[in-house]
Amino acid sequence: MDEQVRKAVLGAVPSLRAFAISLCGNVDRADDLVQETLLRALANIDSFQPGTNMSAWLFTILRNHFRSEYRKRRREVEDSDGHYAEKLKSQPAQIGQVEFREFREALAQLPPDQREALVLVGASGFSYEEAANICGCAVGTIKSRVNRARTRLAELLGVESTEEFGPDQTTRAVLVGGE
Amino acid sequence: MNERKPLGRKPMESATTNRGKKADAKPAKLSREVQARLGQQLRAMYDDVVNQGVPDRFTELLNRINGTGSKDRP
Prior knowledge:
The structure holds two protein chains of two kinds.
Chain A: H1 3-24, H2 27-43, H3 54-76, H4 84-90, H5 92-95, H6 101-108, H7 112-122, H8 128-135, H9 139-156
Chain B: H1 12-20, H2 32-50, H3 56-68
């Protein structure tokens, strides 16, 4: 393996993990997802175009892999109580820092399309165009998903103004179930 | 609308309107302050993971692949 490729791949790992955790809500599963992504990427390294964004390429692989796995699992096991948000609540320790638990729970209640768009643009630092490429949709679609995600998050966290979003206040926000 | 109104609650009118519709039918515009706070929280949560760096299993994985060729899978 080219040393440059190796460095670029390793360099993307921390952010890939953060993205994977935000997608699936489980650190162990997320690390498996990252591992599977790296294996796929390296097996297909010839299809990577040198000079293009390695990180975006890896994010695309991870995102598509997660989507197809997720669909497969849903077909195999119809876990009625396995809703992502419910799982999160039952295993908060896996998520790590307690301080982010409430935010993660709110994030978990967003539709997957909105969640990935928000994370890619708002945290991973991709442009709307890059996020649209990663998700295989139009730029306008990403923009509207990000907007809807923000609005819904604000609702879920009970935030209508900054005054209500202090560190002490957020804990009393009521998580609204359903749509 | 009154999105910059420094009150915690939405004006009555918009709260009622929103309740009747799907939450995502037409997203209300959030104030910049709220957007900024949500963005901060999101990045803090994300960066918390990023700052953990590269776990050993991934460094080892790449070393292993390097030794055996990229076609191999465990």
